[in-house]
Specification:
heterotrimer; A alpha+beta; B alpha+beta; C alpha+beta; A: alpha+beta; Aldehyde Oxidoreductase, domain 4; 7-stranded mixed beta sheet; 5-stranded mixed beta sheet; 21 helices; C: alpha+beta; Ubiquitin-like (UB roll); DNA polymerase, domain 1; 2 domains; 15% strand
Chain lengths: 789, 288, 164
């Protein structure tokens, strides 16, 4: 028992001081005397054989220490083998750097190590690489064509993964349906674009045969395991040390080929080597995401009830698989039904390889899900001339339906889609909006209101991976230590890239211990001190990390109170609690000072252990691991207002709100910030961002002049309304969050645009909603209800 | 992205700068604000052997009124242009155009001369110079020449400037009585280069007729284009209803738009119509 | 660092003189970070778009990635390290902290430097003006909402400070 309430407090962040004063310690801020600089020469072709590489002239250039290719790396490292036992997934393997051929523009071919980056880039111009250009596979359609070149020649086609699934009897439902509604959704290729690009610094100590890898990585321990294995080292020989990270969003998880190359070079040269990816490299060669084409077919009753749903989804996965190819689309297919009651369901998913940068998880890899589901509902509403809100309500889960087993077997519980929908509608004031919409339409201004109901899957316990056939665990580990002075240190296997863990986790640890969060220091990112956990991804930080720390802190609290009871001469600790760093005892129903501080107990535990209860180990340290449920779900309802300039096609976001249920909130300010950031990323994706490859596979979006990120002008104020209800199954009661915002925005903005354009009888279903695309829909169309032009 | 090697000098006088240009102009680039040149250097898209930094030539940063012209030094920063009382009074379109360039930090460094010499087809200041019948003052070691804006821009990133020449000033006729101006551009985000831009001035005669209409369009080809042969209607005030829409449609119909990979011709034609109409309406409003 | 083309460069940064030896092509952003040891200025794109590298040159914001160190001789350069150094945060820094206007912190120094200079010239801005001024700094984490609130708060506090 404690008297302090730290969990849920709106504490300003402890980590801010160093960031606002420019004293953060990011990778490039770390000074490593004598460090060399790596620079990669990358393929200018989308698809080509590497005929020869001549680096003789470059080796003589000023400052050049070494130049290596795929051949040297093949000796020093093992290849990637991506072959989880998943039916329908083709195994793939690739070398650290390409040897035979390049598969996308930006594919790293040669690595130059020099005394500085300027000289390395000079030397790169002296390397001659002869390529034999091959026909490219520049897009999804070509990839699936019968005569398409093979991106990966060990496969028989570019279809690297294909799965299908059926639950219930969709065929019967379609046969009996009153209506069959077909809808399609095209989502474009995007990339994470954190403001800090990728980079690393590898230090090999020959004396103790040990590698220290400084790198901003979301999953320090799994990364270390991978790095050790690929370099034929044991994990004991590798330390991963993560400095502050300037954003990650899923791009800093996998062990990339550049990073492995740098580590191998450091070992080979016996000198520290560092690498900084420049922005062009980051945009064309780091990791891409989201390029999906989806089609749904819904069997619908007259009242708008969905009797059955079929999903077809095809994904362009790029040229290399740093993740199992079905990994991202699978989540979409599994959780598609979201907040709706649908039991007859089937999906078919295909993943293809193309000559593009390989794909990976980008904040809400399943982002397209809510757009597809709610977009299908809106299509049903249009077809049946029903109110889309009513169609949602007709199909939406009720509290009495929970826990609800989705047709795919996932159990949804502790979600509140109806409640958040009603709260959002009330906050938005649709009737008031409709009046404005009507008045403005008469003046030639087209406004639209959009809605999207999100059920966000988070956390992913081990049972999820098992069911998916993906080797891996979903557990998280943490330790908490009370020092002899009473100061508290704690660690988890996560790594922060802006989530505020140093504050939220201090709150989680502080509460059971009855202390001020300012007295708790959270240590992250160094694998020598952090426990082996699965790291930060899939919105698991708060739930997995927070829960394990809570469990560990509670265990310590129990130990402290047991010791206190002994010191106080009591039989039991039942009437003791920790509050304000002191032990309190309940006497006559009132909590009173017991004459012991937390520091007093700690002193005994470490330095006077003979006074401990008989049989108790000295010290105050708890180390725990926690495996969350296979999936936890948070939910929310997103609404927005847009205005569309029908003359230019430009879409402007006027207003955005979300009613959010993510369970127990560890720190409401941080949770709101996460929601706003996710929503902004979604808006930016719908309207502006686009990775563009031309018909030759040339990447046309290699700078921030072409890959457009939303600025403060394009993002509207974002109102976050809390409607949190606890998760009954996790120790903290939290449900995980931080990706649902992307899902909601990607669905709400199209919903609003289509509401605005309804008078013209057009439906926008190809993202991004560029002015050019919107105009192409409107060209030749008139407002069908307008009195005069 | 690190630039290739170059040698560097920062001449202290205009004569020194011109002498350097004469000696090394073929392999040199002049850097002023650097907001356009530095990205190209950093990406190794430009590879001069020598950089001549003219930021020290303070005499090139003046704005002066001379008779019926405003003489604006090449080193005048966009921020200075947009806040100058003289420019606001005598050439308000220029002040407005400068305010729309990039972002706050960019405008502190970017210069009028740099923007004109760089000749980006989508840039605001070349478009404004063109429609305002500006004259570009060019100096070299052997003398001075004046080139009309309409003759200055040859193609994308290409002007009549010889390697040994320096753009030192832009001379702009002051705006006339009863002259109104309009300036409209379309971009994806705040501060981006325009996809299409339109600049216009017109004068209202005593009888309410529109005289002296000037119109220029940017973003439709390698250089901004003056639209000639415009019909100026002899109409009274009430007759102006719908005039701007009709003229805008005619301009959009007739204008040559060069195909590029980024933005479809049809789309840009529609933008020309929409922006021209708005710009004309603005100009009319200001003229009254 | 290459010695063959390096020249002596004298920079005045945050009131201190730094003597260094560098090639003319070395970016001011790299020189500030590596030669002057001032790592608060961050590099996000090296083509002037993201704004993370913004510093002040004679009081006016400038992208340090678009300046060569050699160009900045004779100028007064101000970096993030000049703000909030002696324990008291500047109005923008304090407001960003209070309003949760930062997450990963990488874009933050560029925003502090830009907005401190901008607020000095724009004492009573509207929200639209703040967003427009902020549009030259990209943030991938926050969605800008809290940063805008922080700037408005900082503006208010600066006005109150001036009145006093």
């Amino acid at each position: 028992m404690t008297g302090t309430k730290a969990i849920g407090a709106a504490l300003p962040r402890k980590e801010d001081y160093r960031f606002v004063t420019g004293q953060g310690r990011y990778l490039d801020d770390i000074v490593v005397p004598g460090c060399l600089h790596a620079h990669f020469i990358r393929s200018p072709h989308a698809h080509a054989r590497i005929a020869s590489i001549d680096s003789a002239a470059a080796l003589k250039a000023e400052g050049v220490i070494s130049i290596v290719t795929g051949r040297e790396l093949e000796e020093w490292t093992t290849p990637v083998r991506m072959a989880p036992p998943i039916e329908g997934l083709q195994p793939v393997e690739f070398t650290t750097l390409p040897i035979d051929k390049v598969r996308f523009i930006g594919d790293p071919v040669v690595c130059i190590v020099a005394t500085d980056r300027y000289l390395a880039e000079d030397a790169a111009e002296l390397v001659t690489i002869d390529y034999v250009v091959l026909d490219p596979v520049p897009d999804l359609d070509r990839a699936l064509a019968v005569d398409a070149p093979l991106v990966d020649e060990s496969l028989t086609s570019n279809l690297v993964s294909r799965q299908s699934f059926t639950a219930g009897d969709p065929a019967r439902c379609f046969a009996e349906a009153d209506f069959i509604v077909e809808t399609s959704f095209n989502q474009h290729r995007q990339t994470h674009a954190p403001i800090e690009t990728r980079g690393c610094c590898a230090i090999w100590e020959q004396g103790r045969r040990h590698l220290t890898m400084h790198i901003g990585n979301q999953v320090p321990h799994p990364f270390r395991t991978q790095l050790a294995r690929r370099m034929r080292l044991t994990e004991s020989q590798v330390t991963v040390a993560c400095p502050d990270i300037g954003g990650a969003f899923g791009q800093k998880i996998a062990l990339y080929r550049e990073e492995l190359t740098v580590a191998a070079l450091a070992r080979h040269l016996r000198r520290p080597v560092r690498w900084r990816e420049d922005r062009n490299e980051n945009l064309i060669a780091a990791s891409h995401a989201r390029e999906d084409i989806a089609r749904t077919r819904a069997a619908v009753g007259k009242d708008g009830r969905i009797l059955a749903l079929e999903l077809e989804i095809v994904e362009d996965f790029g040229a290399y698989c740093f993740y199992p190819a079905n990994y991202l689309a699978r989540v979409v297919a599994m959780i598609l039904t979201g907040p709706y009651r649908i039991s007859d369901y089937a999906f078919e998913m295909k993943i293809v390889l193309t000559n593009k940068c390989g794909s990976g998880p980008m904040r809400a890899p399943m982002a397209i899900t809510s757009w597809i589901m709610d977009g299908t509902i809106e299509a049903i509403a249009r077809r049946l001339a029903l109110d889309p809100i009513e169609v949602r309500l007709t199909n939406m889960l009720r509290a009495a339906d929970l826990p609800y087993t989705m047709p795919t077997g996932l159990v949804v519980e502790d979600v509140t889609p109806r409640e958040t929908l009603h709260a959002a509608l009330e906050a938005f004031d649709i009737p008031g909006f409709r009046v404005r919409q009507q008045n403005d339409r008469a003046r030639g201004i087209y406004r639209g209101a959009g809605l999207c109901c999100v059920v966000e899957s988070t956390t992913y316990g081990s049972a999820f991976y098992k069911a998916a056939g993906i080797p891996g665990s979903g557990h998280e580990a943490g330790w908490v230590r009370i020092e002899p002075s009473g100061a508290v240190n704690a660690s988890v296997g996560l790594m922060a890239s802006g989530q505020g863990y140093e504050t939220t986790f201090a709150q989680v640890v502080a509460e059971p211990l009855g202390i001020d969060p300012n007295d708790v220091q959270i240590h992250l990112g160094n694998t020598d001190t952090a426990p082996y956990g699965m790291g930060s991804r899939g919105a698991r930080g708060g739930t997995a990390g927070g829960s394990v720390l809570l469990i560990a802190a509670q265990a310590l609290r129990d130990k402290v109170l047991t010791i206190a009871a002994t010191l106080l001469g009591l039989n039991t600790s039942g009437e003791l609690r920790l509050n304000a760093s002191r032990v309190e005892r309940r006497l006559g129903g009132v909590w009173t000072e017991a004459g012991l501080s937390l520091a007093d107990v700690a002193h005994v535990a470490y330095l006077d252990p003979l006074r401990l209860p008989s049989g108790m180990e000295p010290g105050l340290e708890a180390h725990r691991a926690y495996d969350p449920p296979p999936m936890t779900f948070s939910n929310g309802t997103h609404m927005c207002e847009v205005s569309v300039d029908v003359q230019t096609g430009k879409v402007t976001l006027e207003r955005y709100l979300v009613v959010d249920d993510c369970g127990t909130v560890l720190n409401p300010v941080i949770v709101r910030g996460q929601q706003q950031g996710a929503i902004a990323m979604g808006i930016s994706g719908v309207l502006l961002e686009e990775v563009i490859y031309d018909e030759n596979g040339q990447n046309r979006s290699g700078s921030f002049a072409d890959y457009l990120l939303a600025t403060a002008v394009e993002i509207p104020p974002i109102e976050v309304i809390s409607h949190h209800t606890p998760n009954q199954k996790t120790p903290t009661g939290s449900k995980g969050m931080s990706e649902g915002g992307v899902m909601g925005a990607i669905g709400a903005v199209p919903s609003a645009v289509n509401d605005a354009l309804a008078p013209f009888g057009v439906v926008a279903d190809h993202q991004p909603f560029t002015p050019m695309y919107i105009r192409s829909l409107l060209r030749g169309k008139k407002d069908q209800g307008a009195r005069n032009d | 992205m690190k630039p290739g090697r170059f040698s560097y000098e920062a001449p202290k006088t205009l004569e020194d700068a011109l002498a350097s240009l004469t000696a090394r102009g073929d392999n040199a680039k002049v850097i002023a604000g650097g907001q356009s040149l530095a990205p190209m250097l950093n990406m190794r898209l430009a590879r001069p052997e020598h950089l001549i930094d003219i930021n020290g030539l303070k005499e090139l940063g003046q704005v002066r009124l001379e008779d019926d012209r405003l003489t604006i030094g090449a080193l005048t920063r966009h921020a200075a242009l947009s806040s100058s009382d003289l420019v606001h009074h005598y050439c308000p379109m220029l002040a407005y155009a400068a305010e729309t360039i990039g972002h706050y930090a960019i405008r502190q460094r970017g210069t009028l001369g740099g923007s004109i010499a760089h000749a980006d087809p989508a840039a605001q200041l070349p478009l404004a110079a063109l429609v305002l019948d500006a004259e570009i003052e060019i100096r070299s070691a052997i003398g001075t020449r004046m080139v009309r804006a309409r003759d200055f821009f040859l193609s994308i990133f290409t002007t009549v400037l010889d390697p040994n020449e320096l753009l030192v000033a832009v001379h702009v006729p002051t705006s006339r009585q009863r002259e109104g101006w309009g300036f409209r551009l379309f971009n994806r985000r705040a501060g981006d280069f325009a996809i299409v831009s339109v600049a216009t001035t017109l004068e209202l005669g005593d009888n309410g007729a529109i005289n002296r209409l000037r119109l220029a369009v940017g973003g439709i080809g390698p250089v901004p284009v003056r639209v000639e042969d415009l019909v100026t209607a002899e109409v009274s005030e009430t007759g102006l209803e719908g005039w701007s829409a009709r003229l805008a449609a005619a301009v959009a119909d007739a204008i040559q738009i060069e195909d590029n990979e980024r933005t479809p011709v049809e789309f840009r034609r529609e933008l020309v119509a929409a922006l021209t109409r708005d710009a004309l309406d603005q100009a009319l409003e200001r003229a009254r | 660092m290459s010695d063959s083309n390096s020249i002596p460069i004298l920079l005045r940064v945050n009131g201190r003189t730094h003597r260094l030896f560098a090639e003319p092509r070395r970016l001011l952003s790299d020189v500030l970070r590596e030669d002057c040891g001032l790592t608060g200025t961050h590099v996000g794109c090296e083509h002037g778009v993201c704004g993370a590298c913004t510093i002040l040159v004679d009081g006016a914001p400038a992208r340090s990635c678009l300046l060569y160190a050699v160009q900045a001789q004779g100028n007064d350069i101000t970096t993030i390290e000049a703000f909030g150094a002696e324990g008291k945060l500047s109005p923008v820094q304090q407001a960003l902290h209070e309003e949760h206007g930062l997450q990963c912190g990488f874009c933050t120094p560029g925003i502090v430097v830009t907005m401190e200079a901008w607020l000095a010239e724009n004492a009573d801005p509207t929200e639209a003006e703040i967003r427009d001024a902020l549009s030259g700094n990209l943030c991938r984490c926050t969605g800008y909402h809290n940063i805008v609130a922080a700037i408005a708060k900082a503006a208010r506090r600066r006005r109150e400070e001036t009145v006093k």
